[in-house]
Predict the structure.
Amino acid sequence: MITKIIREEEIQKAKKYVEKGESFVIVTHVSPDGDALGSALGLYHFLTTYGKDNVSVVVPNAFPRFYRWMPGSKEIIIHEKYPDFAEQLLREADVIFCLDFNEPKRVDKLAPALMAAEGRRVLIDHHLNPADFCRVTMSYPQMSSTSEMIFRFICRMGMFDLMNKACATCIYTGMMTDTGSFTYNSNKPEIYTIISELIKKGIDKDQIYRNVNQVYSEDRLRMMGYVLYEKMKIYPEQQTALITLSLDELNHFHYVTGDTEGFVNLPLSIEGVTFSAFIREDTDYVKVSLRSVGEFPCNRFANRYFNGGGHKNASGGEFYGPLADAVAVFEQGLTEFNPNKIEDLNKEA
Ligand code: 5GP
Ligand code: MN
């Protein structure tokens, strides 16, 4: 048995929208990751199996090539490529599911169209502090992933039988990628009960792992070697590591979206490193990714210095200015917000 975590009232309201709605749009955050895509496509397969023939998944921008194998991924509409079509779908939708993000700005340039849409919005998410922009807000930060919430949502509507193999495959992918293949944020026993049910639906979990993790290009692996040998800086006093990559360096390795995925986690395998940052120059901004192990709240760091947020152990933000200035802000942050002195932080909280 799986515990009823999502409040009944939220389930019933959303269920009514599912039953009565004719046109559905599923939206997820900018730079969609495995959980964003897994939850969106999982829900997409469920709704189509349920008999809805007007269901679209809309994402703000491109997603990594190692998710292109996911069932349904070819149907995804990328707003950056087809803005008019994506915005028309939003305008015409009866119901809009907002998955794996907690505030409109996380869908970037799609936000105005999302907020102007008249359809009923339903949020399903596991990030802290959800903004109040949906009719139904299912926000459960204790969940491993939004994909796990989609599983629970379908079950609680009494429609587990409508979960097919494609749906289960997408849900599993999101749960796997948001927990580092079940190496963090994955101690709750029910996660494994859910996986067991997904396997009964026919998923091949070993193949899913290989699809996501073993399809990198030679360039990406060489860039990883470069980053570890030449670019990783350790701050022993702060138990911290930093990796930076400039646009020139990325171009040298023919960077495509997704190539630097996971780089931020690499330094955490060093004994004594509890906080890791990856700062990447992009064309019009600088992207900051942060990870921690244990109690250091990297979302507070992201929020204070990079106008971002996320989870305690995985967060990110953005910086507008030169890469060197972003590094300076980061280093200043380390002096005030030292992972080696968590007691001070907790006093301040
Ligand atoms: P990543 O480092 O993989 O891009 O992001 C890790 C997590 O940090 C995401 O799942 C998301 O919760 C959060 N995050 C990343 N970038 C941002 C950002 O710019 N703003 C906010 N609020 N959260 C972010
Ligand atoms: Mn997620």
Summary: Residues 35, 100, 126, 145-146, 178 surround manganese (II) ion (ligand 2) (CB under 6 Å). The chain has two domains: 8-213, 218-348.
